[in-house]
Specification:
By secondary structure, the chain is α+β, with helices and mostly antiparallel strands. It has one domain (8-326): B-lactam Antibiotic, Isopenicillin N Synthase, Chain (Jelly Rolls, Sandwich), CATH 2.60.120. The chain has nine helices and 14 strands. The chain has helices at residues 18-31, 43-59, 62-67, 116-119, 122-146, 153-156, 239-244, 296-304, 315-327; strands at 8-11, 34-38, 75-77, 95-99, 102-103, 109-110, 167-173, 185-190, 196-200, 209-212, 224-225, 233-237, 253-257, 270-277. The strands form three sheets. An eight-stranded mixed β-sheet has the order 1-2-12-9-14-7-4-3. Strands 8-13-10-11 form a four-stranded antiparallel β-sheet, with no helix packed on it. Strands 5-6 form a two-stranded antiparallel ribbon. Strand 5 and strand 6 (109-110) form a beta hairpin. Helix 1 (18-31) crosses helix 5. The longest helix is centred in the middle third of the chain and has 25 residues, at 122-146. Bound molecules: 2-oxoglutaric acid and fe (ii) ion. Residues 171, 187, 192, 199, 201, 209, 254, 256, 272, 274 line the site of 2-oxoglutaric acid. InterPro entries: DIOX_N, IPNS-like_FE2OG_OXY, IPNS-like_sf, Iron_ascorbate_oxido_reductase, Oxoglu/Fe-dep_dioxygenase_dom. This is Fe2OG dioxygenase domain-containing protein. Keywords: Iron, Metal-binding, Oxidoreductase. It holds the Pfam family 2OG-FeII_Oxy. One of its GO terms (molecular function) is metal ion binding.
């Protein structure tokens, strides 16, 4: 099945076994590393999370945001705080809140301060994190099957406990009122850092995500709209899995843009949420296939991200290096 755009669509209800899932996803993961998944089972929770997000970004006090400001990849980031594309230092027109691991319990225990409007939902947040992690484990088993590895190889390198550095991120792109001139950059071109990202978008005001297919030359401007598919979850490969798999799975550049020219009536606000699934910090990202199989083009793509296949780097070292490059452009804003 296809969404008609640059990204394929798979109905996971048609894939009851890990083998059938592997078969259904392998083409997309090896071309652009982006895939829409229907019937993922997280639909109702995602709606609830969007409601929490709207309340937080719409009503939270400045004091609470400041109390929970960004540190160690967790907490609140202001509009223009991040520069996702270091080659084009235009600040991103978005604000975000990163939630780190929340331990289950009565009540659940967050690993960092949560603002009041999130703290009252810790149970739902904790459950959603858990279910996103489980969904990724299902995909990771399929990835191991595709590469002919022990089917538990990737799963065993991910754990959801106090040591987990995976992030549930809430994103808000403020509206652009009529007549205001802004850069078209809602989120600069980047690839994600972890193993997998689950991205939740909404059809209402959700357009704007584009990918640069990984077959394109490095200087290509041939960006493609992903579109938004109602109720579907968008999965994409991150740099850790690209490195691990010797670029058999592609971690593809993507960005969020405003339309150019801006319509006279302005642009509505946009909400999205991402589960950034991370391997356990001590996991070795040593490439699991012979590095001689990697094409020159993929090697050049990886080099640009600072990734060196065949080097025994830990997931933690890799993540710290990528975060440093995202936040270094605006030192006066960095609160970490
Ligand atoms: O908001 C979106 O649709 C994409 C956000 C994204 O790519 C990211 O935060 O890594
Ligand atoms: Fe991303």
């Amino acid at each position: 099945m296809s969404s008609g755009g640059a990204v394929q669509l798979v109905d996971i209800a048609q894939c009851p076994t890990p083998e059938s899932l592997a078969e259904a996803i392998k083409g997309a993961m090896q071309t652009n590393g982006f895939l829409f998944i229907l019937n993922h089972g997280l639909e109702k929770q995602a709606e609830e999370m969007f409601a929490i997000s709207e309340e937080f970004f719409g009503q939270e006090t400045a004091e609470e945001k400041l109390r929970c400001a960004y540190a160690n990849n967790r907490g609140y980031t202001r509009v223009s705080q991040e520069v996702l594309d270091p080659t084009q230092p235009a600040p991103d027109l978005k604000e975000g809140f990163n939630t780190g691991y929340i331990a289950p319990g009565s009540p659940p225990v967050p690993s960092h301060p949560l603002p009041a409007r999130m703290a009252k939902h810790t149970e739902a947040l904790c459950q959603f994190q858990h279910d996103c992690f489980d969904f990724c484990q299902r995909l990771l088993e399929a990835f191991a099957i595709i590469l002919d590895l022990d089917r538990n190889f990737f799963k065993a390198n991910h754990v959801h406990d106090e040591s987990d550095v995976s992030i549930l991120r809430f994103l808000h792109y403020p509206e652009v009122p009529p007549g205001v001139q802004v850069s078209p950059n809602r989120a600069g071109a980047h690839s994600d850092y972890g193993s997998l990202t689950l991205l939740f978008q909404r059809s209402n005001g959700g357009e704007g995500l584009q990918i640069l297919p990984s077959t394109e030359p490095l200087d290509s401007k041939n960006w493609k709209d992903t579109g938004v598919v109602d109720n579907a979850l968008l999965v994409n490969i991150g740099d850790a899995l690209e490195l691990w798999s010797g670029a058999i799975f592609k971690s593809t550049l993507h960005r969020v843009v405003l339309p150019t020219p801006l319509p006279a009536e302005g642009i509505p606000e946009r909400f999205s949420m991402a589960w950034f699934n991370q391997p356990k910090p001590s996991a070795s990202l040593l490439t699991v296939v012979p590095t001689s199989q990697i094409t020159e083009h993929d090697l050049a793509r990886m080099e640009r991200k600072g990734a060196k296949p065949g080097v025994d780097i830990t997931a933690s070292e890799h993540l710290l290096a990528r975060l440093a490059s995202t936040y270094k452009q605006l030192p006066q804003n960095a609160e970490a």
